[in-house]
Amino acid sequence: MTEQTEPTTAQDTAAENRADVIVVGAGPGGSAAAYHLAQSGLDVLLLEKTAFPREKVCGDGLTPRATKQLVAMGIDISEEAGWLRNKGLRIIGGGQRLQLDWPELASYPDYGLVRKRDDFDEQLARQAEKAGARLHERCNVSGPVLDDRTGRMVGVNAKLGAEKRPVTFRAPVVIAADGNSSRLSLAMGLHRDDKRPMGVAVRTYFTSPRHDDDYLESWLELWDRRGSEPRLLPGYGWVFGMGDGTSNVGLGILNSSSAFKELDWREVLKAWCASMPEEWGYTPENMTGPIRGAALPMAFNRKPHYSRGLMLVGDSGGLVNPFNGEGIAYAMESGAIAAEVITQAHARRTPSQRELALLNYPKVLRDTYGGYYTLGRAFVKLIGNPKVMKLATDRGLTHPTLMRFTLKMLANLTDPTGGDAMDRVINGLSKVAPRA
User: Fold this and answer.
1) Across the strands, what pairs with 185?
2) Measured between alpha carbons, how far apart are the two ends of the chain, in Å?
3) 319 pLDDT exceeds 60?
4) Is the dihedral of CA 409, 86, 58, 319 positive or negative?
5) Are the CB atoms for 330 and 321 separated by under 8 Å?
6) Would you state the pLDDT for residue 9?
7) Are 26 and 133 in contact (CB under 8 A)?
8) Helix H or strand E encompassing 312
9) How far is 131 from 123, CA to CA, in rounded Å?
10) From CA 176, how far away is CA 312, in angstroms rounded?
11) Less Cβ around it within 10 Å: N or C end of the chain?
12) Model confidence over 404-433: pLDDT tens digits?
């Protein structure tokens, strides 16, 4: 993708190719941003390179934090609408099995949800469309359009439809919600910080009698048993019942270990599944799709989150929670924050006032997540050592109160005011940690 400056043509000035905001990518972050912008009365173009439904690699499990964002978008999350609710998290490790309910909080619901991503993303995009956003599917953005005087992004060039018709869309603000690779960010010189943590998730689906499990399940010990002796790996496994006859089974791995690059994680997943009880059905003949993998960009690994007319939300800005690998909640939250900032900026009278408002976006993200993500980066370094992970698992799972605290910490589920002692400790730690 290359930076381009092009003269204005009759095609560019057509009303349907202009908007107040362009959102590139109709994943959870992009659709949430488009929805809230449209709800505020702004003219929004939502550009998605593929056509719905489309698959994405994900665990498909949603915490109460993500559930809150769905409610805010007016999504019907009833069981009748096909959503499977979960009560909490089941943790397995160190010979222990501990079942923890989601905490009861004023700020978040006490349940999570499960939904396949191919269906999930489309629901959010259609909701943004209902709110007034103009959705273009099969719209592959090829590069930014820059103001040749200021170097500011003022639109994007794209190829639209099956015929790949060239088109230029223009808007004073562009949101990059185009995922981990974020080609739009790269074209503007915004690269990942290799010092920030990165994870990888691999998953597949199995037909299984465990499909209607009402707890998300996390395995804190990930053993590679393919060699002569078992080897403890730096990561965790999950089993999420989908409620449709299948289970989503996968594992997450951090790049804080030497094993990150040397192993074929798809083969590790196969071996891990082979160690499961036979009656669960996690066998090759019950696999309903291929093993797929995706990167998990964590803890602000691409900055600045706003520069020269371009705003980053979700994975494009590295907003995945380093504690647990959760990305959907933070994509949707950052989309809502971006929409609020842009809406306020749009109401300012002069370009300098609008720019001042837009520059507040990185500050809001830093105030919201900075300290917590700093704690998460320290956590990632610790558990990158399998011996530390095993020690924590062996000791921690025998103390339910400690694990309830850990659940709140890892899932970022606290009441900001008026919470219990655990909330106050977690909030206090996040406030005093450097907001980098």
Assistant:
1) none
2) 29
3) yes
4) negative
5) yes
6) 47
7) no
8) strand 310-312
9) 12
10) 5
11) C
12) 998 999 999 999 988 899 999 999 999 999
Q: How far apart are CA 240 and CA 153, in angstroms?
A: 41
Q: What is the pLDDT of residue 257?
A: 64
The structure tokens listed for 310 are 């371009």
Burial of 50 by CB count in 10 Å (0-12 exposed, 13-18 middle, 19+ buried)? Answer: middle
- Rounded CA-CA distance 319/192 in Å is 12
3-state secondary structure of 64: helix
Residues 6+ apart with CB under 8 A from 77: 67, 70, 71, 83, 113
CA-wise closest residue to 303 among 374, 380, 365: 365
Give the single-character DSSP code of 417.
S
Instruction: Give the three-state DSSP class for 128.
Output: helix
Rounded CA-CA distance 249/265 in Å is 13
| Nearest of 36, 54, 52 to residue 44 by alpha carbon | 36
* For helices 328-346 and 28-39, angle between their N-to-C axes, nearest 10 degrees: 30
**How far is Cα 284 from Cα 267, in angstroms, rounded to an integer?**
12
What's the Rg (C-alpha) of the chain? Answer: 22
Backbone angle region of 362, left / alpha / beta, with phi > 0 → left and psi within -120 to 50 → alpha: alpha
The CA distance from 14 to 322, in Å, is 44
Supply 300's token pair: 């602000």
pTM of the model: 0.93
Is residue 354 left, alpha or beta, with left meaning phi > 0 and alpha meaning psi from -120 to 50?
A: alpha
Q: Which amino acid is at 39?
A: Q
Facing residues of 292 across strands?
203
Starting at the earlier edge strand, list the strands of the sheet with 61-62. Answer: 61-62, 112-114, 84-86
- Cα distance between residue 236 and residue 392, in whole Å: 13
DSSP state of 163: T
Q: What is the DSSP letter of 164?
A: T
pLDDT value at residue 400: 84
